Amino acid sequence: MRTALHGISFVVPCYNCGGFLLDAVESLAAQRLSVPSEIIVVDDASDDETTLRALATCRGHKGVRIIRVPLHSGAQAARTTGLRAARCDYVLPLDCDDRLATESELPTDGGYAQQAVQILASDPNVAFVHTFSRMMGDFDGLTISAYPTCEDLIVRKHHAPLSIVYRRRDGLAAGGYDPAVRKWQDWAFAVDLLATRYRRCAANTIRCVPKPCHEYRIHNRWQRLSAVDVSELDTTLLVVERNLDYFQAVLDDPRPAHKIAELVCAAKPDRLTELLYMAAYDLDQALTVTRQRRFTLVNPYDSLGIP
User: Fold this and answer.
1) pLDDT tens per residue across span 69-92
2) Could you list the residue range(s) of the whole structural domain that residue 190 is in?
3) Which of 22, 71, 243, 301 gets the most CB atoms within 10 Å of its CB?
C-alpha cells in the first residue's frame, strides 16, 4: 500500500468546459502552500475542441495530472476517479468552471487550502473544512449560504459547499461520490462523509475559513446541475436510505426512511431563513447581500439560477 503525502490533492472533473478549465487550474497552481500539492484533472471523455486544447495546455503545467476517462460518466464518477488517484492526505474538489481566490486577490493567512490542511492535521475531530462562495461571471456577490455551517444544519438540508477540504481516507471510506445523485451532490457527499465518521465513533466538527475563497461562476454556457429537473424528495430519500442509522441518531427520530426524508426536506431553509443565519453571523455582510439582490430574494436574478 502506498503512503499518502502530507499535502493536498485538488480534483477537477472536466467535461467540455472550454476555456474555463485553464482559469480553474491556474487559480489552483497559484495557491501559496507549505505542503506538497497536486492538481488532478479528470477528463470525462470531452470532445469539444476548445476543451481539448485547454487540456493539452494543462499538461504543460507543473504538478498537473490529466486522467482521461474513455466513456462520459458524469461529474460524480469523475470526482471519485480523482479521489482514488489522489496521492495526498487531503482533497479539495473544484468544478472546472469555478476557481479558488489567490492570496493576491484575497489576502488570508496562507490561503484557504493551506489553512484547511493545518486545521485537519491538527484536529482529528474536524470532519471537513469549508469556506464561503462568491459568485462571479453573470452575477457578482456572495451566495446566500455564506455563513459557517455545522453537522446539525447539514442534516437539516442546509447548503454544504462542494469546495470542502476533507481527508482522503474519509472520502474513500464513504465510497466516493454517488453517481446516482444527480443534484444536490455537495450535500449528499457531505452527509456520506459525516455518516461514515459517525459509524466509527469519530467526532463531526466542521470548521470554516470565513472568507469568500471559493469563486462560483454564474453563466449560461451549458446547463448547470442546478437546472436539472430532479425530485428533491426522491434524492433526499436516496441519501437517507443509505444513511438511515445516522439520520435517526442525529435527529433523535426512529421513524422509517421516507418519514425522515420528508422531515429533512421540510427543514430545508428558504432564502430568507438563510439570510437570517447570515445576519446572525455577520449583519453587515447580510445587508450587503440584500443590496446586491436589490432588496429581494426572488427577482430579478432567478433566471440565472444563483444560489
Assistant:
1) 999 999 999 999 999 999 999 999
2) 5-230+269-304
3) 243
